[in-house]
Amino acid sequence: MGFNPVTYDEEADALYVRLLDLSAARTTPVDDLRLIDYSEDGSIVGVEFLEASAGIDLSDLPFRPRLEQLIGDSGLPFRIFA
């Protein structure tokens, strides 16, 4: 991959998991703490998790296994709820 798939902004307590190396054209909230970015063609570019230090809720998200793998591989110490 030519990009860093998982980034964490400690000040904002926001974790971003990038699935594709594309620009986001629109963002759709799943709920107050989870947002999905879509490309122009409707592909899911990435998912942002707010208040990440409280845990990451992967339930009902598309690509859940891939998101869990990328977060785990990042070495960041977040609890994951699936």
String of helices and strands: EEEEEEHE
Strand order of the largest sheet: 1-2-5-4-3
Largest sheet, if any? 5 strands, antiparallel
Radius of gyration: 12 Å
Distance linking N and C termini: 25 Å
Percent helix: 10-25%
Let me know the number of strands: 7
Give the overall silhouette: globular
**Structural class based on helices, strands and sheet pairing:** mainly beta
Q: Kindly state the mean pLDDT as a whole number?
A: 94
Low-confidence stretches: none
Number of helices: 1
Q: Hey, roughly how much beta strand do the residues contain?
A: 35-45%
Keywords:
82 residues, 7 strands, two-stranded parallel sheet, 5-stranded antiparallel beta sheet, mainly beta
Characterization of this structure:
- With 82 residues, the protein is mainly β.
- It contains 1 helix and 7 strands.
- The strands form 2 sheets. Strands 1-2-5-4-3 form a 5-stranded antiparallel β-sheet. Strands 6-7 form a two-stranded parallel ribbon.
- The protein is globular.
- The model has no long low-confidence stretch (mean pLDDT 94).
Please sum up the structure shown.
The protein is mainly beta and 82 residues long. Helices cover 13% and strands 38% of the residues.
